[in-house]
Description:
Blueprint: E1 2-6, H1 17-31, E2 35-41, E3 50-53, E4 58-63, H2 68-71, H3 81-88, H4 95-112, E5 116-120, H5 127-134, E6 145-148, H6 153-159, H7 167-181, E7 185-188, H8 191-200, E8 208-210, H9 225-230, E9 232-236, H10 245-258, E10 264-267, H11 279-286, E11 295-297, H12 303-311, E12 313-318, H13 327-334, E13 339-341, H14 347-350, E14 357-359, H15 365-376, H16 380-397, H17 400-417, H18 436-441, E15 455-460, H19 468-476, E16 484-490, E17 508-513, H20 518-531, E18 538-542, E19 547-548, H21 552-562, E20 566-575, E21 581-582, H22 589-592, E22 603-605, H23 606-611, H24 623-634, E23 638-649, H25 661-675, H26 683-689, H27 695-708, H28 719-730, H29 735-747
Helix pairs in contact: 3-4, 4-5, 10-15, 13-16, 25-27, 26-27, 27-29, 28-29
Amino acid sequence: MKHLIICREYPPAPSGGIGTYTSNIVQQLLERGETVHVIGQLWRGAEQAREERLGGRCVIHRLPLQDWEVSGRQPRPEVPPGEARALFASCLWVQSFAWQAGVLAELLIEQEGIDVVEAPDYEAPLYYLQLRRALGLGPARMPPLLVHLHSPTELIAHYDDWDPGRADVVTAKRLEHYSVRAADALLCPSHFLARQAESLFSLEQRSVEVIPYPIGDVARLDRDQRTWKQGSICYVGRLERRKGVLEWIRAAVVAATQNSELQFEFIGANILGNPGLGADEVLERLIPTELRRRFAFHGKRGRADMLSILHRARIAVVPSRWDNFPNACIEAMASGLPIIASPGGGMAEMVEDGRTGWLAESACSDDLWKALRRAVETPPETLARMGSSASESIRRKCDNRYVLDRHLDFKRGLRNRCARNSLRLPSHLSWSVNYPERSKRRESRPGTKRTGCGIVVVLCAPGSVDGIHLSLKSIDDQDQPAAGVVVVVPEWLQGDAVDMGTSSSVARWVVRTDRWNLATMKNRAIEVVACAGIEPLGFTFLRPGDCIDSGFLASCGDVLQRLPEVGIVSTWTRSQTTGAATTGPCPGYLYQLLTNEVSSPCVVRAAAILDAGCFDGSLDDGYEEWDAWSSILAAGSVAVTYPKILARCGHDARMTASPGRQNNQRFRQTILERNQEGLAPFAAELIRLLDTDGESWVRQASLAGASFARSERPPWVSSRRLRSLLRQTLGGRGRRLIRSLFASLRAFGAND
């Protein structure tokens, strides 16, 4: 077979477990005679865009991911540089790699005859390839897309104590959810993460294939009697919160106080710092001065140095709060060391308590200390036997030949089944939530039939027609003509101030209205189209100065024609004034409640906007679209973002009137109050996403809290955890606010 593996961390780029796995599996595939293409990140020591090995059976493609203005490196010629740079400048800069990788993958699929594409879940490098495929873009040849579950960002953020509402975390989580749900198959190295992922991503039970990582090339190290008696206790891996290093150091400090002969070593980069405290300061505060000489921190080391340090150890430790199937544990066991491990990961599938190591009851310091005490009380002869058993056990479980055979069998079966899930949008984009009071509040307006063809362009000029000629010219230049053009202006605009252009093939109207707010103008345009007997597929709404690229109507219209579940097609846009591009993932109902995620201009299906009751004329300019798009998503329609810059906006692409933060909060409150009955499945997530801006935030969170108390939520989300998040976020000023929120929760029956 011909394999394509996408891995930004492919060595020599900075890598962790994902890069190690990819390097090992590529080596095994090549030794078996397979052909492998790898897409990785361009890095020092690996600066060629394309590198061929083994007579072309191994081809490595490397993509730049950096500040192009400074480095001089440019994206691949197939990639529009403006889009790659816009994604690099976004809150999640690694999207730029995913975008370039998706474009390159399409070329390789077409030119090289790729049979299977594999990529990790982390950072969602398959996202744009999957999205483009679902929208009908890309090559006709569509091999299956395999997502290998390693480290979901949502879990990393939780166990690393990151702010769950941080923009980069939320974006990464959304892209990963899409990528996992749209995968043709899922692979995972541990049953622990497989079951957790099924809950996290709402997957069918036993839908994730479990195959352990290959062991690679790890030698067994011979240790003498002195080492088994006096050797160090070694931690291998990044010094990171989710790796349990803080809890482990606390346990080790207690043990070192009780036993003056214990020596502790640490191999790995220290990333324990935070904005208020340096990484080294964290360690200094944890370890008393009189004990520091017995704690050796070696930092990040090369493989030879790491093996040398392991060689003088008698016990290794993997104390993670959460982990998947850590390579550190594989390598330490393979070298002949028994392991102290927590149960919070695949370590429990590798370590047999009392035979190949010691499993703590939990990852807390007390339980790690108890496991450490059991380990140091073990006689040297028993430690040596346990180390030998550990090496034999992990070599059987992760045997290279065994793992590769299972990989090839799985991928051959996947190739024979062909692509399925990746051909359509994943079901999680549709929430299928209905709000009866919504339809009662608005009466359906007279309008078009529920099907149609072509897009009607509505151009609203509430205050000035400056720039309107640019907008009309961009409409005339479309690859696919509009179904009609409606220009709505206020009554006070005298004479023939609007030149409708020269095209006679498109129906055009100038409509005057005595009400100047945008909602009324848009509703008036829809009525004019209905009265003219035109049956459009959709509408797009522009302001003077907005210019749509030549493919805008054709591209968005094609999505509506191909995908009946789609009600809104958002696009990437660029500001006419600043040149900054607006990029974002596919809008989702939950996130739409917090801010308007749909770019302007967008294309909305005519049936969807009519069913929503059109636009609410009582709302200030800028809110009528936020309100309408939220209503459409609440009714079960899907919104997608077309991954291409298709419009240049003469106004703010997200909010036309810049109404201010206070008004945004007030309107958000209105939306939450209106929709709170349907929020139960999403309330826990909604609370974590809300802005932390004092009492107004707590009032909004209380609305979600009412549903949170009744909702079914993942086991790692609880009211206790929420209380902790609130304390961290609000600090000392938040005690009264926390009490207010939890009074609301208790009123709705939240007892934990």
